[in-house]
Amino acid sequence: MTDYLWHKVSEEEKEKIKKETKSIMEKFADVLAKADKEIKETGAVKRDKDTREETKAECNAEFRKIFLKNAPKTEKSKDGEWLKAERGAWK
């Protein structure tokens, strides 16, 4: 029952652990190599356009209320309340 508790590792156990670890890593590398090939063959998404058209989205009023309540800064205008955010420099 106590064989799973901490104990000093012998040289034999160290070698066994190294061999098991190496075996696991080699198996993992083999699986990864196969997965990489599959991704290259089927990874592309084909689209007719490079951009998508913007549409008028409907907003759930309750979601908007909670979202704006949690926002650090908001601004009210004649059109309603909006999220206020800094415009950052693109690097």
Rg from Cα:
28 Å
Termini Cα gap: 59 Å
Helix segment count? 2
Overall outline? elongated
**Topology as H/E string?**
HHEE
Number of strands: 2
Percent in helix: 40-55%
* Major beta-sheet overview: 2 strands, antiparallel
Q: Overall pLDDT, averaged?
A: 80
Query: Could you state the oligomeric state of the chains shown?
Result: single chain
Strand composition percent = 5-15%
Structural category is: mainly alpha
Unreliable residue runs: none
Name the strands of the widest sheet in spatial order: 1-2
Task: Describe the protein in words.
It is a single chain. The chain is mostly helical and 91 residues long. The chain has a domain at 10-42. Helix content is 46%, strand content 9%. The protein contains two helices and two strands, in the order ααββ. It has a two-stranded antiparallel sheet with strand order 1-2. β1 and β2 (80-83) form a beta hairpin. The longest helix has 32 residues, at 11-42. The protein is elongated, with a radius of gyration of 28 Å. The model has no long low-confidence stretch (mean pLDDT 80).
List the helices and strands and how they pair.
Blueprint lengths: L10 H32 L18 H10 L3 E4 L2 E4 L8
Antiparallel strand pairs: 1-2
